[in-house]
Fold this sequence. Notes:
It is built from nine helices and 26 strands. The chain is α/β, with parallel strands linked by helices. The strands form eight sheets. Strands 6, 7, 8, 13, 14, 15 and 16 form a seven-stranded mixed β-sheet that branches. It binds flavin-adenine dinucleotide. Flavin-adenine dinucleotide binds at residues 144-146, 150-153, 155, 182-188, 205-208, 212-214, 217, 223-225, 268-269, 296-298, 300-301, 339.
Amino acid sequence: xxxxxxxxxxxxxxxxxxxxxxxxxxxxxxxxxxxxxxxxxxxxxxxxxxxxxxxxxxxxxxxxxxxxxxxxxxxxxxxxxxxxxxxxxxxxxxxxxxxxxxxxxxxxxxxxxxxxxxxxxxxxxxxxxxxxxxxxxxxxxxxxxxxxxxxxxxxxxxxxxxxxxxxxxxxxxxxxxxxxxxxxxxxxxxxxxxxxxxxxxxxxxxxxxxxxxxxxxxxxxxxxxxxxxxxxxxxxxxxxxxxxxxxxxxxxxxxxxxxxxxxxxxxxxxxxxxxxxxxxxxxxxxxxxxxxxxxxxxxxxxxxxxxxxxxxxxxxxxxxxxxxxxxxxxxxxxxxxxxxxxxxxxxxxxxxxxxxxxxxxxxxxxxxxxxxxxxxxxxxxxxxxxxxxxxxxxxxxxxxxxxxxxxxxxxxxxxxxxxxxxxxxxxxxxxxxxxxxxxxxxxxxxxxxx
Length: 450
Ligand SMILES: Cc1cc2nc3c(=O)[nH]c(=O)nc-3n(C[C@H](O)[C@H](O)[C@H](O)COP(=O)(O)OP(=O)(O)OC[C@H]3O[C@@H](n4cnc5c(N)ncnc54)[C@H](O)[C@@H]3O)c2cc1C
């Protein structure tokens, strides 16, 4: 009927060839949508069946009343098929793969998407910070992953905003520094550059080396990062938003040279005390005083553990820096997310001749991106790694592991155990500084990510 009306209307305006072309395009469009919906329903069902339908971190929440079903949000996610259209509504079909890029929120023309922490059933601990990244302790800020949002781009943005607010609201109290920044990762780097650009007296402390978590990435790891804007430097952009760890660290080192950025490396922050408006910061090199402080500590200092006896054995580790160190070894990697899968790929490289077993808790990969999934699956086909789904470590012994695999107990010879189960908020430490921790059940971010 609709086709007849349309055909009648168009025949008065177009010739038959034009009508044919119009109908063909319309049919293709309808078919494309149908296919999209089918894939979306499949993905959603898979997430529910495998109990991977709970987002782990910051994620989009779609307001159905505002969603126009245009699909703009489905095309922009760097992680792939996370949001899709079902019945002309955007739906989070692969929640556990979402890492909180926030591109969907920016792409939505009707503002139907809000980024939220936690869900109604699964709370997420987040330190209390306001839109300027200041905590409930006046003058004490949190920037970067410690505030609950991962990704380099977010850390860079937050570091600059926090520092800008801090140095523009300095008190008159006498102190050695206007601003002390703790942590030399992307958040601390960007905060320090902002302090330089505002000509303020700052100190950046880092217990290891400039670069933060990126410094501890495995050698030659490809880092995915959207263009970031660093104070003084401007936009940093890499081809296809991909860059190796070494290139990224080199770029930051260049920034350090060009801007005169100072990071005091190998200095550990231990504690701080606020006396009136003055912060007394205790470090492994003694005490310094500051008018404002930014905590840009990240969360990698508190990796999530399995909680098993013997987990403190030296063979158990929570990151992989140099795969070359491990050759002809029996290795188990725990974790089906990107970090675990990438570690298994590197350790399973045939030139090291390791026996690598990757343990995935669920029945399939649902927390790593499609590229990583493809690579590791191909490696398993070539027998470079073995993948055990529905598996977890039961017991850790110096020379072996007891593993529950598909409901059966199995023993594996083992020299090294790598655990990639994410990281936890160092709540105790933050609370000892007076910072309040809130459990968020699907609450919106106060500031935008873009
Ligand atoms: C394996 C892995 C892969 C990742 N891949 C990507 C990716 O491809 N793209 C992306 O955008 N993000 C990626 N991320 C996330 C990204 O690395 C983080 O979100 C980002 O580094 C957070 O920056 P940050 O400055 O907040 O914290 P961090 O980078 O963690 O830096 C915090 C710094 O604080 C220092 N510090 C901590 N405690 C103290 C103390 N007491 N005293 C002094 N210094 C201290 C630490 O040594 C560290 O250098 C990945 C993370 C991991 C673990």
